Amino acid sequence: MTLEVKQLSKSFGETNAVNQLSLNLPTGRVLGLLGRNGAGKTTTIKMLLGLLTPTSGEMTWNGTTFHSSKVKIGYLPEERGLYTKSKVVDQLRYFGKLEGMSQKEVDEAITYWLERLEIPHYRHKKAGELSKGNQQKIQLIVTLLHNPELIILDEPFSGLDPVNAELMASIITEEINKGKTIVLSSHRMDQVEAFCEYVCILKNGDVVAEGNLNKLKEEYGYRNLIVEDTEPIKSVLNTNQIDFERKQQGIYVKVKTEEEAFTILNLIKSETGSIRKFQLLEPTLNDIFIERAR
Ligand SMILES: Nc1ncnc2c1ncn2[C@@H]1O[C@H](COP(=O)(O)OP(=O)(O)OP(=O)(O)O)[C@@H](O)[C@H]1O
């Protein structure tokens, strides 16, 4: 049970927007599709949605050729795609019917989702009268109304205030728990890390990292040793020519092994007399992204 993409490419004239993209996403799992601006994320999503024809390559869903018309897909675009002059309820009914839902099914789903997103009072408002964040919520209802099996979320948190971002996060978690297969594209590494078991990082159309996030972290080869940001510790590191970075949580030193971390800690202890606290943390997705996608 997998979404499988094999050597998928898309060129626009001379530009290789996506180049030989291959990935495996087991159904019921979440993939973070990452990359800097222009890396090829939207082009990949558009090929999944059937909006762009690949130049070459293959996509399969549970072993058979993937076609957007045969898989129930929910897509949350980064740009709003609502009819601003039409009432919320009318366009939700319209989108639901386009997905083959009956009047009863669509009305039940609209009531459920308006309540779930805490906006039942917007039912009869025109979409254009709603704030950007509330339009995003309506767009999320369009995405989930027909109970899709594959959900594609492009920057789902953009434009949401912290309370609505929490609500969005809890809905994504619910969909994950329902066993939905999700592709999430975002520039926010912390959010991707919170939801995604798998990642695919694109750089100028090429895949530069792909697979299980924990495995990628293991393969990355570095961990972060964090010690207090004090003058004596900085001085020890400088004297011993150990590279470090100052962040809000303290001084970060990249180490390859636990032994290397303890060698540095012993050095600090012997030269400053004590170490009040330290942490040895696994690399973050942000570390991997910066190294690979830069
Ligand atoms: N219709 C098009 N015609 C020509 N070039 C295109 C077209 N669509 C995308 N491209 C090019 O393909 C490359 C990938 O673009 P894409 O929109 O997929 O990037 P992205 O990763 O989604 O970027 P962003 O994070 O900025 O949205 C870019 O170089 C872009 O200019």
UniProtKB/TrEMBL annotation:
- Name the Pfam families on file: ABC_tran, DrrA1-3_C
Give residue ranges for domain ABC transporter.
3-229
Q: Which GO terms describe its molecular function?
A: ATP binding; ATP hydrolysis activity
Keyword annotations of the record: ATP-binding, Nucleotide-binding, Transport
Q: What SMART domains does the annotation carry?
A: AAA
| SUPFAM superfamilies, per the entry | P-loop containing nucleoside triphosphate hydrolases
Xref: InterPro entries: AAA+_ATPase, ABC_transporter-like_ATP-bd, ABC_transporter-like_CS, ABC_transporter_ATP-binding, DrrA1/2-like_C, P-loop_NTPase
Annotated family: Belongs to the ABC transporter superfamily.
User: What name is this protein filed under?
Assistant: ABC transporter ATP-binding protein
Q: Which organism is it from?
A: Gottfriedia solisilvae
